[in-house]
Amino acid sequence: MSARTAAVPRGGRAPAPRLLSGGMGRPGALREFLHDEVVGGVALLIGAVAALVWANVSPGGYESFWHTSADVAGLHLDLRHWINDGLMAVFFFVVGLEIKRELVTGELRDRRAALLPAIAAAGGVAVPALLFLAITAGSGQTAGWALPAATDIAFAIGVLALLGDRVPAGAKLFLLTIAIVDDIAAIAIIAVVYTDTIAVGWLLAASATFALVAAMRLAGVPWVMAYVVVGIGAWVALHESGVHATIAGVALGLMTPATPVGGREVLVELEHRLHPISALAIVPLFALANAGVPLGGGVIGDALSSRLAWAVVVGLVIGKTLGIAGGTFLGLRGGWGRLPDGVAHAHVWGLAMLGGIGFTVSLFIAQLAYDDPAAIATAKIGILAASVIAALLGAATLARTRNASR
Question: What pTM was estimated for this model as a whole?
């Protein structure tokens, strides 16, 4: 999928995606981004495995460690919340940068180029959520309907990397674009659905900090630390307002200029510096703090008989596949876009299955949707199982598509 595909005659071949050679602001930027995601996927896997081992070797020690209180500047949070609310704000800031870059200089800037992955992503959010609600109806556990709506791009790109040249380069770009639109939906859900009460005064204070950032940009303030200080203020205000504090990271990322300022590619520089930190440190640490589930004492048996666990598995494995593939084929039939060069319908099914790897954001939403530790543990087991199944199915499907053609 390329911004130039609109000029391709019907029946012709779409040009190779230009971003593969540097459409992200500088030569090879997409390759560097994908490399970071692959390495980040490995680090994320290590963090998840370490959490599972720790939680099963010492269940009490695992939970007591992450519940250790750490008071900073008057905020009383435990270690897990400092990671989930604090460090993950940096992760979501990087997500905001990615979205802003794609909207201004990337694939999402052209409506025709963005339409097909947007339709695919919409299907990948709606169908899993509907399946989840259908399975959990009447159980009192419908609050987690957004659990199967997210895709973990680091794990998905990691699987694609293992397949090497069996998968065309355009397929990686197509999945990446779907995941970015998916991120936009997940952020909106977190901001709107999982906000219980609003402290209006603090929300107004947060709005004032964002207005200050905008004024500083207009005034040409060049000092990065000045923005960092105001950004911390925005995070504190949102945290106290009741809106999830990570939204501050997204908002500040979206406010970052995507075009050169004084000859500097500010957004590209920030993404270049922060993306490795987010992928290699923050997200694996998040997995270490959240993926640990004690599997003894009949926990797995309870999960197998739980509608919540099955709703997560069915939503991610079946819902994502049907939603993304169905949305893609619907868009193609309606003439609302084209697949990237070399990407066949068989690839679409494999990519849709990889969309069911819903690790990081799914775990994040599980912590927001439920207060009951047993429900959170059951949801985590469903997320882990579904992500493994989706990865295996997607990899097996794509491995058989080397010679696929449209």
Answer: 0.80
